[in-house]
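Justification of resources, computational component.

The compute hours requested in this renewal are based largely on the per-chain cost of generating structure records like the one below. Each record pairs the submitted sequence with a full structure-token output. That output is archived, and it is also reused by downstream analysis tasks.
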Amino acid sequence: MMADQPARVTAREIADFLAALKLRRPFDNDGPGRTGEDAALLAWKASLLDRMAARTEDPETRATAAAARADLAAARAELAADRAEALAESYVLRTGGEH
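The structure output for this chain reads:
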């Protein structure tokens, strides 16, 4: 393995990820936003797919890894927006002001 290449993804890592995914609560698109657990699973998925993509020239594999990174970025942005909204609401409750 070259020094700049990440370690190969093992079958055990994939099995562990799928087991964690199976235990995850269903995500309801009409319900509340993503959770930190969702973001953690998306980060894990992106990491696995990035490591796979680093070892191939296959454009579909690389596109799948890029899509996973985009999903992770969107989830993190959604969580940040939710936290900002909660902080704004907290400010309103404490000060009686508007946000």
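The longest helix spans residues 59-95. Residues 11-95 form one domain.
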